Amino acid sequence: MPELILRLALPSPLRRLFDYRAPPGLTRQDLQPGMRLKVPFGRREIVGVLIELRNHSEVPPEKLKAALQLLDPHTPLPAALLKLCLWAAQYYQHSLGDTFSWALPALLRQGEPAQLRQERYWKAVTGANPDDPRLQRAPRQREALATLAQHPHGVAQQLLSQLQLSRDSLELLQAKGLVELEVRSSTPQRHHGGWLAQAELPLNAEQSSACNAIHSGLDSFNAYLLAGITGSGKTEVYLQLIRQTLEAGKQALVLIPEINLGPQTLQRFTRRFNARIVLLHSAISDRERLDAWLAARDGEADIIIGTRSALFTPMKNPGLIIIDEEHDASYKQQEGLRYHARDLALVRAQQEDIPIILGSATPSLESLQNAYNGRYALLRLTRRAGGAQPPRLLRLDIKSRPLDAGISGPMQQAIEQTLQAGQQVLVFLNRRGFAPTLLCHDCGWISQCPHCDARMTLHQRSAELRCHHCGHSQKQPKACPDCSRVDLRPVGAGTERAEERLNTLFPQFPVLRVDRDSTSRKGAMDKLFQSIQRGKPCILVGTQMLAKGHHFPRVTLVAILDADGGLFSADFRGSEHTAQLILQVAGRAGRADEPGRVIIQSHLADHPLLVQLTEQGYFAFAEQALSERRSAGLPPFSHLALLRADSLKPAQAEEFLDAACALAEQLLGTLNCSGVELLGPVPAPMERRAGRYRAQLLLQASNRASLHRLLTPWIQQLEQLPGSRSVRWTLDIDPTDLF
Ligand code: ADP
Ligand code: ZN
Ligand code: ZN
Known about the structure:
Strand content: 15-25%
Mean pLDDT: 90
Shape: globular
Number of helices: 20
CATH architecture of the largest domain: 3-Layer(aba) Sandwich
CATH class of the largest domain: Alpha Beta
Number of domains: 5
Low-confidence stretches: none
Strand order of the largest sheet: 11-12-10-13-14-9-15
Largest sheet: 7 strands, parallel
Distance between the termini: 55 Å
Bound molecules: adenosine-5'-diphosphate, zinc ion
């Protein structure tokens, strides 16, 4: 009888499969791709995923080990998910085993059974009435019962807080016999009247034409770019299309950038639908993640909402994928498997033959170009749905104007005016801390980080110098470490300094700072937002944390202190990101009766990009930026791959990249690949970081197929290079940052 050899993907960085003998007693019929097996690996036991079965192995028989145990009676990975992972590993030139490590819930990787567990559901008993006399003096319980009654098949324990249901109220209702708790593995088949727990809004003309266009393509793969300004009602369009998907008996997957910043969006989903919703984001436990994954796989969840990695959630009856804020940088993973969730979602939609909607007020240039060349249908929403006016954007030229903690005179006046009118101001500055540098006025010493080619930021509140790149911190020196004199001065301004100065300038108004430093304590963010929502005049100072998720209806002035750093940075994506950020921040402000304005301070107020953005809007800006990319041969008009390396000793990383470059040149010759250029190797823009020396080699190709034809054999050779062990290296396909 021929031997039965299992080829497994193991959690290892090596880009190959590993051969094992089948565990004793198992036959070919017992084994299917996707099943998990426990195997010996070195001195450990690990869990691998079966990819294929063979009759023989290249491994010498005496070295071939037997797998220890089959963990699954059926394959836990649906074929579609397996296919997606194989595609991702191939495209991103990543080890398949490690791809599974990023794509699958941790507990599955550790061998946990892949079956649904019991969940607790709260539901109103039949006939329970919020007008029950026993609830007359218990408004909270009455409200809780009313909410619960809208969800006839119950609300999962996990979702109580989303609906603002408190356990206490429910337990009191339970004691009165009005509410019951059910433990079951899933929601029973729907016998409910409809999917809506709340009426839909009547759509305006633009919304309906977008909705109709997508509705007509709901049965197969179609890609839509829903480009709607902030507040134009994109979410309402999503909700109505999801309802149609549910009515067709299918599931919807919604990706959002960062869950803790989108509680309002989330609540809209849970309030709208009488459906089983699961959430997948970084703050849930491993158990909750596995349960949600299993529920989606088995068709026990109707709507799956999650951040980046939720893309890998299997669905029994996939019907629709939505990527909200598709331009958001958090969709790109910057470690390990460096995938882009938006790009992979497109592949998935194609593989599963279902529609995908990319939504944004400020679409990425990649997606816009795909819309212009016809790969996506472009749907635009140009008006705010609630009737509010979009804010006006104004440039403020600060050439040769003195800045006071980064704030010019005219800006101070605009702030004053707004506060006096009883409104709120949002001051945006994308730099934390007090000042980005501390300088000795006597000898020129600057606060250089000992481990990086970067300066340490002064954090005056905590009297520290901190490096934002490696995390190193030290006490703020009282005297100059070099010359011992005491004339140390902060240079430039961060949010802490702007906050301090604004406090002095406007002592009668509260100044609230929102950045990673001020909101690190649990609940601090919520508290801040509560006081903002009360609507009294105040100043908000913050970083890009302010740009997402929340609405500040009483803010009528957005003051952008420094647009130049980003708009005109060396990174070719800098201007795109800054324009998106400006519009996202701007979109937080204003409502119908109080239109907002956005004032942008710039030293280059006449620059065409800034003029286009402020006078004609994001699309005009994007067209200008795209034409610049086209003439420079940059993405989306070319394809990039970046080989990064770093080492403890100087020059080692560059030597590795030199060897890599020589190999690539050879391969290009033998493969007859044209249109691939090798740029570098060069030291990284910040050469030393966290004590390591960094260098990079950029591959730029006019044709994606040629690039990938080169990459596959090249990376095999790189794994064999003598330097490949002493140097840390990674290959980034479609890099978003060139650092
Ligand atoms: P976006 O997702 O584009 O930022 P939203 O869907 O959040 O926009 O809509 C912005 C506001 O307008 C919300 O308060 C929403 O309830 C309201 N809205 C959306 N569509 C309509 C509509 N058709 N009629 C009235 N109000 C609407
Ligand atoms: Zn000095
Ligand atoms: Zn550092």
